[in-house]
Amino acid sequence: MRILLTGGGSGGHFYPLIAVAEELNRIAREEKLVKPELYFMSDEPYDQKALFDNDIEFRRVPAGKLRRYASLQNALDVLKTTLGVIRALVSVFWIYPDVIFSKGGYGSFPATFAARILRIPLFIHESDTVPGRANGRAGKQAARIAVTFAETAQYFPKTKVAWTGTPIRNALREVAKEGAHELLQFEKTVPTILVLGGSLGAEIINNAILDSLPNLVNEFQIIHQTGEKNLTVVSGISKTILEKNAHAARYKPFDFLHDEALTTAAGASDLVVSRAGAGALSEIALWGKPSLIIPITDSNGDHQRKNAIAYENAGACIVIEEANLKPHILITEIRRIIGDQKLRERMSENALKFANTNRDNP
Questions:
Q1: pLDDT interval class at 201 (50, 70, 90)
Q2: CATH number reported for the structural domain that contains residue 70 in this entry
Q3: First-to-last CA distance in the chain?
Q4: Which end of the chain has less neighbouring CB within 10 Å, N or C?
């Protein structure tokens, strides 16, 4: 069987496809089936090692973003997408997969358009509460549609939708239960906070952490994923802020936490502070970690805010809007969660329930 995977624009679009590939390869191996031929089509490979490790062949097609504001770049991207559609039609025709699976994002449009023209069955997965533009269009032609949040079903034909949760890679399913504190040189008796702003980081979260840092390290240990472009600046500022602080060693900034480092950090943490991307929420839920969620204000379709509200309604987190992200509010909410064991236990149970409910729905 030949299966074409497509999606692009972020890790939230890419890594669930890797999780699907892992599962397809596992089923073929355990059931002694012929190994599927897997392809990934997008404008960039995103993570070449992940593709290689899962025997996925990359097919590049150009694709452009559709911005919501006036820009000369829009005209160039229309041309780029048109060329991508032409190239995708040729490439998909020669592969002629049995099915195309799309995770959405602008990089998926050429492949899903080719699926429509060539009449190839299309499956899509939508992670957010509100579908992005690519999946919104693709949903009209898709044979089956999987969603992370039950609320998303209202945007698609009901007979096609299944509530499945977000596919998560095997490497992120289990947190490190032993050795995390020793590796990080942290004290086991001091509560630990894991701060995640996504692979690119989040400047507003970084600034809030830095503004709160002297008070935070007096009570907590912080593992801070700053984003690759922000590490130098954040590290420099934090060193200045904590220069004479006796608890400076309680703050550990990292540019990006890869799989093993992320599960180690998650294993050491008592609370996660994160954006509201569907992938991040699904991972936090699977880890059973209490969380403080800060959605992006101007995300496409306000999807991060709606993701956060849905997760909060499940009783698994507390939401702070960006407009309210002030140092005293951040510190107060962290203290409230860390200081209330029953609240943490309830949030942990609800997070696991959210993860299991999603995962168990076929």
A1: low
A2: 3.40.50.2000
A3: 22
A4: C
